[in-house]
Amino acid sequence: MPTTLPLSDTELNALRQRCHTVLAGHKQTSPAEDFAAMAVWCEQHQTEHDVYGDGPLVQEFEQKIARLLGFESAVFCITGTMTQTLALRLACMERDSNLVALHPSAHILKHENSNYQLLDQFKMQSIGDPMRTWHASDLTAIKDKLAAALLELPMREIGGQLPDWEQLEEIKTLCREKNIHLHLDGARLWEAQAGYNRPFPDICRGFDSAYVSFYKGIGALGGAMLLGSSAFTARAKVWMHRQGGSVFRRSPYVVAAAMQFDQRLANMPACYTKTRQLAELLKQFPAMQLNPSQPQCNMFHLYLPVSRERATIIRNQIAQQHGIWLFGRAIHAALPGQCYFEWTVGDALLALTEAQIVSALTLLQQAIKE
After folding, report:
1. Could you give the 3-state DSSP secondary structure of residue 178?
2. Looking at the domain assignment, is residue 76 inside a domain?
3. Are 338 and 303 in contact (CB under 8 A)?
4. CATH number reported for the structural domain that contains residue 204 in this entry
5. Based on the number of CB atoms within 10 Å of its own CB, is 266 exposed (0-12), middle (13-18) or buried (19 or more)?
6. pTM across the whole model
7. Within this chain, do residues 99 and 238 fall inside the same structural domain, yes or no?
8. For residue 294, how many C-alpha atoms fall within 13 Å in the half-sphere facing its CB?
9. Are residues 206 and 313 in the same domain?
């Protein structure tokens, strides 16, 4: 029988696995499926383990990503949490300043337990409006000497918003003129490329360093890449080792990313097209509101006129009764009696028809009106 009791993470994962229809993200796979696919790929490519990152598997993948994005060099890293603060620390050391401009929604501020502060990596200067992307004028307004500025493309915490192309180019120009290290938080850069519809090197040109993730849009087991000049990544390797990031075998993470990278990247334009189609379908359900109103990549936030607790119960009941998984986590909104959830379009939604999507949204609308 359906329950309104809170479910543990394990129970929620099992519930999602039992659903025949999933509306967000990629299709979930089991460890057995992942490892079997990795074994086949390794056999096909005669893959050998690396030793502390040294070996064809890791180094060729690093070179591939560097060429794709237009950077001189890249180094595979275990976590983005280490990668981002490390890049900004190096920028501060180079410029004899410990001040970094971060948007209030930056992942470093919201999800990393104040690591930059407690580990004495750098100091933070807030930039821009919390609900909008930041612009060159926001940077000009800061009168202190900045070592670096971080720009996330797209900005996840405000619904996947992107600065328009002219604004992005203005930021790059201003940072170059002021000798401010411009770092790209590209956790979802693969998604941003489809939104801009421009080549990766055009997007990345003007950034002094960049971080990209392999477990979000690509769907790997984990791992990240730090990109920049050869001198920059060489220094990064030294500091990665100092911080415990130089693991003996990186091959499992690299294989999990490399074996599906090309296909997932090729699917991004279709995911963005599907996202725009989804936004049109949502106009039939006025109780639900999008942010941004026109998706700028393959994600957005969907606001519901119910509390987070009520939305969670609705999600679980629809999953239990109808086998449809609507969303992951509901989040408190600024106004009482409202919440929102992040909707990322992946291969799960690509496989659904318009009728299936409308049916699922109809169930959600009926439930929030009860």
Report:
1. coil
2. yes
3. yes
4. 3.40.640.10
5. exposed
6. 0.94
7. yes
8. 3
9. no
